[in-house]
Amino acid sequence: MNWNFRVLRGLARLTFAQQLILLALVPAALATVAAITVLTRQHLGNLTELMRANAQTVALQVATVAQAPLARMDRRALARTAQSGTYQPNVQQVQIWTEDGEIVANSETVDRARADGLQVVVPIVGDDGRHNGQVMVEMSLAAVESARRSVWFNVGLVLAISLFGVSLAGWWAARRISEPIRALGKAVDRLGAGEDASVAIEGTSEVRHLQHGFNQAARALAESHRLLQSRINEATAELARKNQQLEVASQAKTRLLAAASHDLRQPLHALTLFSDGLANGEHDPVKLQRIGHIRECVDSLDRLFSELLNLSQLDAGVLQPQWIDFPLDRLFDEISRNFRPVAEQQCLRLVVRKTDMWVRCDYVMLSRILNNLVSNSLRHTIEGGVLIGARRRGRGVRIDVVDTGVGIAAQHQARVFEEFYQVEPTGRQAARGARGMGLGLATVQRLAELLNTRVELSSKLHKGTCVRVLVRSAPAALPPAAGSQAVAAVEEEESLANVRILVIDDERTILEGLTVVLSNWGAEVLPAQTRAEALALADTWEQPPDVVISDLLLQGGDNGLDVIAALERHPRGIGVGTARLLVTGETKPDRLREVASAGITVLYKPVSPRVLRQAIQTQRAVAALAVGA
């Protein structure tokens, strides 16, 4: 079966002309060989029978002559009789036997080479009709072998001549048939390349009919190709115009968002600081309630701007995972502290399951993912609550964020991770105003891609939603070092009494707001709006400040990074013991990349007082450790 398959595959590789020649050659060769074989076998058979008949004749002659000497047992006469038989052509041996089988005479040729022989035995019959003995004549078959060799030589010669003639005729026929087909094949190639594919009308009537039909089809296809190419060119040009318009619109949108975000973050940042300053020392319930409403509005705006900032950072490509091993419970505790007041304010339960598992991940990115998921769940849950837990799955850890919220219909589940896509709120959810910008889950999806993991969502309408995040597990490490405990202790410390803080911001309202907030915490504030004012303060102070907080973009195109560098070069400027913080409302990708490469901790406006104080305490602890080292 395999042999037949290989033969067929080998035949398929031959050209059409070769197949036609082979088709003519094989039957002719088989027929010729079969006919010659039959004729040759018949001829050799006749020749063999003729030799047998000759041997029979010689044997009869010897038997007739040997009849009388055998009766007398004249051995000498019998020997001469046997010898006379060997004189006949092709006779190799003659023997005369008695009735008992005794050889009384034997004669064989000695001057010729012995060959295969044909033996014939004839009885010696007396006058009374009795058998007195036998004569054996062995006839040589050398003539038959010679005839066989001659015949096969002639057969080979005739076969070669026949096959050559058949091959020549087959080649001529194949060339006459295949040449138009080969021309059609080349025309098809030209047609595929978009060139002129017409062929000359020649050959037999069938071939001419085929060539005529091909020319008509080629002309129709060429016309269709020209029409299609024209439409493709028009569609390509239109698509290019649309793409250019989309690119211009996208760039305009990016510039608009960046400019609007930066310009709006400045007064929002000042509003955040002043709202915190208003509440300080205020005891009137009515005023405190109004200040609380202001803070709610500020927090809502802060959340929306944070979503835009996260998206801008992802677009700029400044976020790269920093892989570390940490206990998952530390992150869970942080989420519980951040969102428990929000849940209680909405009369919801926030349940965070304790865990002893460690994970290997980027702490900040995973924190941002879970914060977005929890915030999203609380926003869309009317009653019940939100559960956060973790469990092992193979070599990884699966973190679940489950809520009893309004759920997501099946037709929306595939699109909720798209940017700016939102499901319209209904009922109590709409009345409560639970609506964002549709960027929370989009940010989660893109951060998960940076972490080489995936986010899975399952939800039922009016039953709740479960979002799962898969991360790599890590072995549990030793307890944190003393230095880390010192940092945590400093972070928990609330007072900034006697801490000297240099604040640089070209916006007067922000500068005043920062001064009010920091002064309320007990800090000594050194305000400056420009580089010149900051350097003038450096000329007069007795010792450098403990903390420098600077805006990124200052008046006259100045840069907060450059101002901090100038303070570092100043003879009485800042050193390793001074903590550094950048505060900016910039969202342009190039600016974000510049800030990310600076190596200084950055806070993005609007910054809540709690986040600001936590950042100051953390950077002071880091600076203290640097001085101790």
In short:
The protein is an alpha/beta fold and 629 residues long. It has 18 helices and 16 strands. α2 packs antiparallel against α5, α6 runs antiparallel to α7 and α6 crosses α14.
Question: Would you write up a description of this structure?
Answer:
By secondary structure, the chain is of the alpha/beta class. Helix content is 58%, strand content 17%. It contains 18 helices and 16 strands. It has helices at 2-12, 16-65, 67-72, 75-86, 142-192, 205-279, 285-316, 328-345, 363-379, 410-413, 427-432, 440-450, 482-492, 508-520, 531-540, 560-569, 589-596, 609-628, and strands at residues 91-98, 103-108, 117-125, 131-140, 323-327, 349-352, 358-362, 385-393, 396-403, 455-460, 464-474, 500-504, 524-528, 547-551, 579-584, 602-604. The strands form 3 sheets. Strands 5, 6, 7, 8, 9, 10 and 11 form a 7-stranded mixed beta sheet that branches. The longest helix has 75 residues, at 205-279. The two termini are 82 Å apart.
Entry keywords:
629 residues; alpha/beta; seven-stranded mixed beta sheet; five-stranded parallel beta sheet; 18 helices; elongated
How are the SSEs placed, and which strands pair?
Elements: H1 2-12, H2 16-65, H3 67-72, H4 75-86, E1 91-98, E2 103-108, E3 117-125, E4 131-140, H5 142-192, H6 205-279, H7 285-316, E5 323-327, H8 328-345, E6 349-352, E7 358-362, H9 363-379, E8 385-393, E9 396-403, H10 410-413, H11 427-432, H12 440-450, E10 455-460, E11 464-474, H13 482-492, E12 500-504, H14 508-520, E13 524-528, H15 531-540, E14 547-551, H16 560-569, E15 579-584, H17 589-596, E16 602-604, H18 609-628
Helix pairs in contact: 2-4, 2-5, 5-6, 6-7, 6-14, 7-12, 7-17, 8-9, 9-12, 13-18, 15-16
